[in-house]
Predict the structure.
Amino acid sequence: MIKLFLSLTLLAGWCAVAAAQPQTIVPGGVWPDDRGQHVQAHGGGIIKLGDTWYWFGEDRGQANQRGIRYVGCYSSTDLVHWKFRHQVVQADDPAQLGRGWILERPKVYYNAPAKKYVMYTHIDDGRYKVASVAIFTCDTVDGDYKYLKYFRPLGQQSRDIGQFIDDDGTAYLIFEDRPNGFHIARLAADYLDVEKEMCLIPMHMEGGAVFHLNGLYYVIGSHLTGWNANPNLYATAAALTGPWSEFRDIAPPEVNTYGSQSTLALKVEGTQATNVIFMGDIWKPRTQWDSRYLWMPLHIDGATISLPPPANWTLDVKTGVVGQ
Ligand code: GAL
């Protein structure tokens, strides 16, 4: 009874805070969900449906069972207060890759014609030799996603993946191909395959993120240093097919992207301003459940962008205005 009362009080408090504007984001902090638990959506992706954002990512919760791989799903209408929806994937090695198999960087797309949610993930064996993507699908955004298949996109190796949905709704997968570089490829009409290469950037970059703003495409990625942070880079192009500019540092190289690695660039368009949020992971390889998130609005000046030093900031998703 007391527990129920406490839970209701906590929930009421959470809802009251959620109703106030604008909302504060604390880069690098513990990010409690509606249950008071740190959000488990590492290496994540986000889609917006109506006025709600859904955040999917690796759920590395401490209570999870060994051998099973989990994807967490959360929803929010202000990008700050996240409601835990479900562990939408609880997979027990569906591709039979053996002990230590890997499922990382889940990204969900909504295929409107088929009314299906299609999730791409990096799938691998424990030695990262399979280098493939897996697809899981579901009829609802936060239901139990069912494993469909795994494959190498365009027949190439694929480890870190990223998600990009253009303003016209076209869905792309970004993937790191160790021998060749960094691909941006369009999904097939039903999203169940990777169909067309837009470009292959001959750079070795992970944590791929793309956004489109004022007629320019921006691509962001990290170097290949495993869980350790490195100076993330960006380039621009007038079309996804390129040509791409030289790559430049997103922040002073010595700060190593403030200890984070890119995973997504989320455009927030409000009535007064449009901002792009750099979403990065601050990995803690030995205590993955405690890995943090570094979300900051990018400074954008034409073809030049920079990631400002992390500091608490506010976002009003209605107006799109960010503040301190
Ligand atoms: C990183 C990658 C992560 C994970 C890690 C394993 O480079 O971005 O998603 O695969 O390596 O060492």
Summary: The helical segments are 2-19, 256-259.
